[in-house]
């Protein structure tokens, strides 16, 4: 289906939730409007970290921390940069 953006009312989204959930699962984004405003957007969730991925991230962070002598303030984003 690709990257599509659809718009629907909140009432329609509630009554046809399975349909819109399937569209989001296929890659579409659904904007849900309420009284003419667009307060909600349904998008596909990022997959959760698996135990293996989490372990790899922890190892990388610890290796950076222990490999470099620390001079100054620790910046978390430097430990996880790729």
Secondary structure elements and their pairing?
Blueprint: E1 5-9, H1 10-15, H2 17-25, E2 29-34, E3 37-42, H3 51-67, H4 76-80
Parallel strand pairs: 1-2
Antiparallel strand pairs: 2-3
Q: How does this structure look, described?
A:
By secondary structure, this protein is an alpha+beta fold. It folds into two domains: about 5-40, YefM-like fold (3-Layer(aba) Sandwich), CATH 3.40.1620; about 50-80. About 45% of the residues lie in helices and about 20% in strands. It is built from four helices and three strands; from the N terminus they run βααββαα. It has helices at about 10-15, 15-25, 50-65, 75-80, and strands at about 5-10, 30-35, 35-40. It has a three-stranded mixed β-sheet with strand order 1-2-3. Strand 2 and strand 3 form a beta hairpin. The protein is elongated and about 60 Å long. The chain starts with a strand and ends with a helix. The mean pLDDT is about 85.
Keywords:
single chain, 82 residues, alpha+beta, YefM-like fold, three-stranded mixed sheet, 4 helices, 21% strand, elongated
Mean pLDDT, as a whole number?
A: 83
By CATH, the architecture of the largest domain is named 3-Layer(aba) Sandwich
Q: Evaluate the radius of gyration.
A: 21 Å
Helix content: 40-55%
Question: Number of domains in the coordinates?
Answer: 2
- SSE arrangement, N to C: EHHEEHH
What summary fits the major beta sheet?
3 strands, mixed
State the distance separating the first and last CA atoms: 31 Å
Identify the strand order in the major beta sheet. Answer: 1-2-3
């Amino acid at each position: 289906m690709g990257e599509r953006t659809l718009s629907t009312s909140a009432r329609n989204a509630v009554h046809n939730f399975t349909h819109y959930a399937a569209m989001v699962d296929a890659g579409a984004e659904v904007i849900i409007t309420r009284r003419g405003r667009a307060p909600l957007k349904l998008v596909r969730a990022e997959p959760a970290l698996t135990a293996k991925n989490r372990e790899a991230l922890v190892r990388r962070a610890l290796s950076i921390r222990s490999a470099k002598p620390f001079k100054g303030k620790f910046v978390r984003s430097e430990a996880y940069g790729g």
